[in-house]
Amino acid sequence: MGLTVEFRGRRSLFKPESVVQAVSNVDLTIEQGETLAVVGESGCGKSTLGRALLRSTPIAHGRVEFKGRDITRLSGRALRDARSQFQMIFQDPYASLNPKMSIYETLAEPLLVHGATDRASIRPQVLDMLSAAGLDPSFAERYPHEFSGGQRQRVAIARAAILRPDFIVCDEPLSALDVSLQLQILKLFTALKQQFSLTYLFISHDLARVFGFADRIAVMYLGKIVEIGTAADLYRAPAHPYTRALIAAAPSPNPHRDIPPAAATLRGDIPSPANPPKGCRFHTRCPQVMDVCKTREPTMSDLGNGQRAACHLLTQPPMAG
Ligand SMILES: Nc1ncnc2c1ncn2[C@@H]1O[C@H](COP(=O)(O)OP(=O)(O)OP(=O)(O)O)[C@@H](O)[C@H]1O
Ligand SMILES: [Mg+2]
């Protein structure tokens, strides 16, 4: 709630200290068992939001609750215990796997770190997890370099799931894979979610890719959530001009032929998050910008069915004609 993460730039004689609000006053509730996708262009704060929710980056303001418990100020042992219920999966499985550890050791390690003492009971757990992740248990003694990118991502996912976490942040886990592998890994995420009752925050820069996979989608722009709703509602009726622009820019077949391309094309570059535009942060690139957008920040409008968007068009539509 009201979550803000700031990074301070180095101060020098000639340069005042700069503060980047990578995540700015975000309110977000993730329901147990759901897949919430977070989408937006590079640098909009997706990874920082994911890390803040897992308490792996300092929080400047606001609060993070997990299962009704405030975890914002936990530290030391209490934080370590809480963290065993969270996991994170990254884009590049090779970087997140230790090349010197066999697949068996890779999966056994989290169990041992979190208190498993009975080595005999670990083995079946590891082998079961490998099969659940679509890997042949006979691969257990091999090393990460012996696998393809897709198989390595399966290993990373198996390692994340083996502690039976409640909540997994998946940070662009498909970006390094080609399209056919992306679909296979998405299937694996779905299967594991059902098998282990997982909850996902699924970070992606590709809105089209998450429509069929996520329950809800949050669209971020320069540290803020500009629109959130069910995947079906955002697909059918995107309310924010930025969401529309992302859809229009998607390479896959465009479901929104009724949005005139000219009204949906993103102009210009993303402004610096250290110095975000006044008013609506999106106004410098918005195809439907109005005067009010340059001075006043829009608040979230409730569009029904949990869909919300922050845009002045929703509260003061421009006059017709
Ligand atoms: N450790 C850090 N120190 C300083 N600034 C940071 C740090 N991490 C992120 N930032 C800044 O915070 C902003 C948000 O970054 P973040 O990595 O969360 O974006 P992202 O949406 O995940 O981008 P990408 O799609 O490229 O992964 C960026 O402006 C980035 O430069
Ligand atoms: Mg990122």
TrEMBL record:
CDD domains with a match to the protein in the record: ABC_NikE_OppD_transporters
Domain ABC transporter intervals: 8-247
Keywords, ordered alphabetically: ATP-binding, Nucleotide-binding, Transport
Topology with respect to the bilayer: Peripheral membrane protein
Chief location category: membrane
Record-linked InterPro entries: AAA+_ATPase, ABC_transp_ATP-bind, ABC_transporter-like_ATP-bd, ABC_transporter-like_CS, Oligopep_ABC_C, P-loop_NTPase
PROSITE patterns (UniProt xref): ABC_TRANSPORTER_1, ABC_TRANSPORTER_2
Annotated localization: Cell inner membrane
Pfam families: ABC_tran (PF00005), oligo_HPY (PF08352)
Family as reported in the entry's similarity comment: Belongs to the ABC transporter superfamily.
PANTHER family: D,D-DIPEPTIDE TRANSPORT ATP-BINDING PROTEIN DDPF-RELATED, TRANSPORT ATP-BINDING PROTEIN
Protein's UniProt name: ABC transporter domain-containing protein
Organism: Devosia psychrophila
Lineage: Bacteria, Pseudomonadati, Pseudomonadota, Alphaproteobacteria, Hyphomicrobiales
